[in-house]
C-alpha cells in the first residue's frame, strides 16, 4: 500500500510513520512531494524532490498547480499498491487522481487544519489552494474518510462529506514505546512539546509560568519544538526574567522526547482557536504523556477533551487564560498524590481507547472493506 503525504517525514508528524510501521498485513511505501526528514529504517520511499534539485522545482510547481498524477505515477513505477492512504484532506485531493489512474481505493485521514482552516486562509497558500476547489470531488469519489476525533468528524461532515464513509478513527499510541513510569521518576520539569506557532498557545504558558516560577523556584520549563515564533518567545522569556528557567530545545528526536516525558512533572498544551480556524484536532502529545503516566494541563478546545479528561487525567482550562493555566499548574505542582492518580488514569485511558495495536487492527479491517467494495 502507498502512504501519500506531500511533505514526507516532518518531525512534527511522527504519528504517520508510527501507524504505518505497526501495520501487520499491509506493507507500506511512502510517496510524496518533498522530504523533511529521513524515512523509517528499512522503509521504501519516493518523492518528486528525488529527481534532483533545482531541476525538480518546475515539475513540483506544475504538479502543485494542475494535480497531474503523471509525475507520481512515474515515481511509483512498477509498484502496484492495493490502496492509497493519504494523510490530511489536502493530500487526499492530490492523491485522488493517482488512485483513479491506478484503479485502487483511496483512504484519507483528516487530522486537524484540513477540517478547520478557513477557505480564505487556504487560498493564501499555493500548496493548499486546490483543496477548497476540489474538496467536493474528493468527497464524492474518495472511498473512505477517517477522522482523528469526533470533533474533526463533525467538521468534515459540515464540509459535505458523506456520513456513511466518514468515520471516527483514533490514530493510536504505541504503549510499548511509552511504558508507564514510576511516579518517582518525575523531576521538577514542566514539559511543553509543540511546534512554535500561534495555535499551540506557548506565549500563554510562558506568561503563566512566570507566576509559578515565583512560587516554586525549583521548577523549570522545558520547551521542545521549533517554529516561526521561537525568536519572539525566547525574547519574551528574557523580558520576564525567565531566561535561566526556560529551556528552548528546538526539534528533538522522538526517542529523546519520550525521555523528557518520563522526567516531567506534567505536560502542558495550552492550544487555542486561531483567527484562521486552526485548532487542535486531538493532540497526540497529550496521549503520549498520558501513556507514560504524566498528568496533563491543556485547554478545552477542539478535540483535546477526547484525549484529556478534566479532573481525571489532567486539568482543562479555558483558552487564552494564563491565570487559569497558572492555577492548574500550581495545583498539580503542589500535590504529588494527584499527579500520580491522574498519571495512572491517563495510562488507563490510553490503553482503553487509543492503543495503536487495537486501532491498527481496526484500520486494516477498513482497508479490507474498501478493497472488497471495489471488487464486488
TrEMBL record:
Pfam families assigned to the protein according to its UniProt record, in alphabetical order: Glyco_transf_4, Glycos_transf_1
Keywords on record: Transferase
Domain named Glycosyltransferase subfamily 4-like N-terminal: residues: 59-175
Superkingdom as given in the UniProt entry: Bacteria
GO MF, any single term: glycosyltransferase activity
Residues covered by the Glycosyl transferase family domain: 185-348
Name of this chain's protein: Glycosyltransferase
Naturally occurring in which organism (per UniProt): Lichenicoccus roseus
